[in-house]
Design goal:
The chain is built from 11 helices and 4 strands; from the N terminus they run E-H-E-H-E-E-H-H-H-H-H-H-H-H-H. The protein is of the alpha+beta class and 199 residues long. It has 2 domains: 83 residues, 3-Layer(aba) Sandwich (Glutaredoxin), CATH 3.40.30; 100 residues, Glutathione S-transferase Yfyf (Class Pi), Chain A, domain 2 (Up-down Bundle), CATH 1.20.1050. Helix 1 links the parallel strand 1 and strand 2. The longest helix is centred in the middle third of the chain and has 18 residues.
């Protein structure tokens, strides 16, 4: 059985839980206190971070790598596009999410008001640029739910928690977010601490 070592409020762990529940397979989640990491985690992941996936003698870390492995190992429903060109585009999108959105999470959680304000402005600007996509289509890659939707969902869930306010022009993005939040895999994959992030 797969075991996921997961932070209870960690957005990257949230991604992996979302995928595991979307796949509807047998797995075990071990909640980890990210402020008090268990010693064996540093042995499994040299970066001493969550999430970490363990299956027999395989140990994986980094949310995108974990999720692609799960998707290939359990191909139904398929979350990465089957076409090599679309799959490459999806990976580029995932890369840009890391560099334009998720790179600001440490600053948002830093407790330093000046740094957090700058990060909020950057995330707000980048998300507002994405909004027009959803005026025309249901999900990030069109009509089909994919790994891109999985990747961005935990951030969208945390907007209020991070104090990020979006303008009216981002309405299509917020409607898209509600579609993601209503998915059973998203709901089941949340920890009580994550549920408490939104009123």
């Amino acid at each position: 059985m797969m075991t996921l070592y997961s932070g209870t409020t960690d957005p990257y762990s949230h991604r992996c839980r979302f995928v595991l529940f979307e796949k509807g397979m047998d797995f075990q989640v071990i909640d980890v206190d990210v402020n008090n990491m268990p010693e064996d985690l540093a042995v499994m992941n040299p970066y001493n971070k969550v999430p970490v996936l363990v299956e027999r003698d395989l140990i994986l870390y980094e949310a995108n790598i974990i999720n692609e492995y799960i998707d290939e190992r359990f191909p139904h429903p398929q979350l990465m596009p089957p076409d090599p060109v679309m799959r490459a585009r999806a990976r580029l999108f995932l890369h840009s999410f890391e560099n334009e959105l998720f790179c600001h999470i440490a600053a948002l959680e830093s407790g330093n008001a000046k740094i957090a304000d700058k990060a909020r402005a950057a995330v707000q600007s980048n998300l507002t640029q994405l909004a027009p996509i959803f005026a025309k289509q249901k999900f990030m890659l069109g009509e089909d739910f994919s790994m891109l939707d999985v990747a961005i969902a935990p951030l969208l869930w945390r907007l209020d928690h991070y104090g990020i306010r979006l303008d009216k022009e981002a309405t299509p993005l917020m409607k898209y977010a509600e579609r993601l939040f209503s998915r059973p895999g998203f709901i089941e994959g949340m920890t009580p601490a994550e549920k408490a992030m939104r009123k």
